[in-house]
Specification:
Elements: H1 5-16, H2 20-26, E1 33-37, H3 42-49, E2 57-62, H4 65-78, E3 83-86, E4 99-105, H5 116-129, E5 130-141, H6 146-151, H7 164-171, E6 175-183, E7 186-192
Parallel strand pairs: 1-2, 1-4, 2-3, 4-5
Antiparallel strand pairs: 5-7, 6-7
Helix pairs in contact: 3-4
Length: 195
């Protein structure tokens, strides 16, 4: 059986682009100072953190050692330098106005499973560590749709990031809050810190 080099190339390109949407939605670029809160998937962290290059900085704040191990592994696989801190998202162990972009990985429910008062505390902490004009991007699971929703028992409420509650929580401290996209099973919500 002969291999089709064009089909093989498309397969490799698809595999290599598995985080292209994520990287595009976060808008992280060379030289940025990035903080990611939570790490449900180390590969996602590595893909985004690798964009800051040597002139930028990437820090991951995670709640426990299991998440820290995922973050370190994802960073190593992507060849990214990432400082990993263990701490609660309600009290980030970071300096005021130290970051350009904050990414919150809520695909594991880190923020969504917290009580509303803690969600507000997370939003205030993100606002504190971002520079004026800095951006926060929440990433969460999209609600199931179509045949998948019919065949599986769907939760009574949409996942946190896909809910109006996520936008309302961000609006307490950020402006220009909007849903950027809902694709590939993920929802991206962005807010801008006032200047």
């Amino acid at each position: 059986m002969a291999l089709n080099p064009f089909a093989l190339g498309r397969g490799l390109a698809r595999r290599g682009d598995s985080y292209m949407l994520l990287v595009g939605m976060t808008g992280v670029k060379m030289g940025d100072r990035l903080v990611q809160v939570g790490c449900a998937h180390g590969g996602r962290l590595g893909a985004v953190a690798s964009r800051v290059g040597l002139s930028g900085q990437a820090v991951a704040v995670v709640p426990d050692e299991g998440s820290a191990a995922r973050a370190r592994k994802g960073a190593a696989q992507a060849g990214a330098l990432v400082e990993v801190e263990i701490g609660p998202p309600t009290r980030l162990p970071l300096a005021d106005q130290a970051f350009d972009v904050a990414v919150v990985d809520d695909t594991g429910g880190l923020v969504g499973a917290a009580p509303p008062a803690d969600r507000l505390a997370v939003a205030r902490e993100l606002q504190r560590v971002l520079r004026p004009g800095g951006r926060v991007v929440l990433i969460g699971a999209a609600p199931r749709a179509g045949l998948s929703a019919l065949l599986t028992r769907a939760p009574a409420h949409p996942p946190f990031v896909a809910s109006e509650e996520a936008r309302t929580t961000l609006m307490s401290t950020f402006r220009a809050v909007r849903t950027l996209a809902e694709r590939e099973g993920l929802v991206f919500v962005e807010g801008i810190k006032p200047r």
